[in-house]
């Protein structure tokens, strides 16, 4: 792909096309292109529009959070299969509808309030002055894909929704009857008795034949089919591979040091108190009082002004340059009157923190790393160009890599996730490389593709092994063990059902247990709050115990390879004092849960009031995915974008 773009950009065809484009703009005017009022929004909700860029930014944020939780990358295909794009689309549609509805009913914060809230965000503060900085504000927005108008809208929506939520939540408390029922449910105690059915209590099954195991594999192909595997040859163009051996140009290093030494050094900082003076006489009075040891704040208050304190700041952080020059010429504890750019003042130096001018030796490691990185990037580009030239001359991938001087490594077989036949991940592979490799036919070779972080790669598919059932001989011991356990479990279940039926017909739990050579174990005072901490009972047994009625008999898997035949013997309510306490403690949580339901209902109502349209095809295009097939894409099936409900 890169080589094709490079070649086209240099061709006469590209020059002619660009020239015709410029001429067409001059003759017809650019504005004619935009006369049509066709919306390209992914979502429209009344006066509001979500652009493809807005949707992509939100989708990528959600996807990044899911990847962080999963601890591994999430491909677009997997994300789509799990409906993440649709969930993001639906969530944004509901949010936009609610914001539009609030606008329609007049719930809008004032511009002044929005400005005040933006100026409180620490990310937009200047690191030196500690105050809101417009340049930092615009830079941070740009880094996160926002423009000031877009962020202004986000703040407006957030403040409006906060005010509505505060009004809705004020005084909201569920009735005590609700939490009382929940407390009764949570504190209900149960006594159970049970005995186990062990593998030794049933006849052992015969060993399976190869025909049995093969038939079982064919009946369960998903569990026993090995994924498509490929053998690949990969040529890598990596700054890491070429950077370590590159020499350092000492003259360039010295030049970069001279240019950067001021920014790499630590400037001297000072803590300074500046007291503005209304006149020269006032400045003299201020100086005399400071000399007597009076506190600067008290002196400033006495003369009717406010002291300005610069706490551990460099000279560049002091607004008045004349004041800065004078302050940085004094010693700690000294004071002096100054005729500043903004008027007369008296300054006092409270403390001095010396600066440090970085030496060439100190800066060398960082600057050398930068130079190597820059040189490595240039070297990698030159290697990729040499590889492209060799490929255009007819060389195969391995030969072209050898001529360019880059390694070409054959690896595999590998599946699409970059794992070997034993399921182990192979180092040095990326998901992008595997996606490119699995999009090629056997014998196919890719163009030079960008891998990120300044790296590039080219890949050739040497061999393709289609999906197929695994060889029985490779898994026969493990599959035989599984078969025997499965057959034993079936016999144990039949035995447990038989014994449980006897208890249901009236025999005591003890008598039935004794006939099976077992004894009854009893567990008292099981409640839902403490059940999860029980280290003996399995999850299935606990679920069966809390789902049963008094006197009901059940069977359940235990934590070991055995089954339990159990009976719910007693159900008791919790103590009155504890019920009363839990009833009050649960009110805030249940109130919050009901508030969330009210908020969801409010969004649902807003979507019915506001005309909302969500275009699935545009949403998928915004994140680089193909449209859904006509049978599953509402936008194609009906000829119109899907309307969010």
Q: Can you give a write-up of this model?
A:
The structure is a single chain. This protein has 645 residues and is of the alpha+beta class. It has five domains: 1-38; 39-170 and 597-643, Orthogonal Bundle (Triger factor/SurA peptide-binding fold), CATH 1.10.4030; 189-222 and 473-572, no CATH class; 228-245 and 391-466; 266-356, Chitinase A, domain 3. It is built from 26 helices and 18 strands. The strands form five sheets. Strands 2-1-17-18 form a four-stranded antiparallel beta sheet. The chain has a four-stranded antiparallel beta sheet with strand order 14-3-16-15. A hairpin with a 2-residue loop joins strand 11 (449-452) and strand 12 (455-465). The relative contact order is 0.14. Residues 1-38 and 631-645 have low confidence and may be disordered.
Overall form: extended
Note the beta-strand portion. 15-25%
Quaternary structure classification: single chain
Tell me the strand order in the biggest sheet.
Answer: 2-1-17-18
Supply the number of helical segments: 26
What is the architecture of the largest domain at the second tier of CATH?
Answer: Orthogonal Bundle
* Arithmetic mean of pLDDT: 81
Give the biggest sheet: 4 strands, antiparallel
CATH class of the largest domain: Mainly Alpha
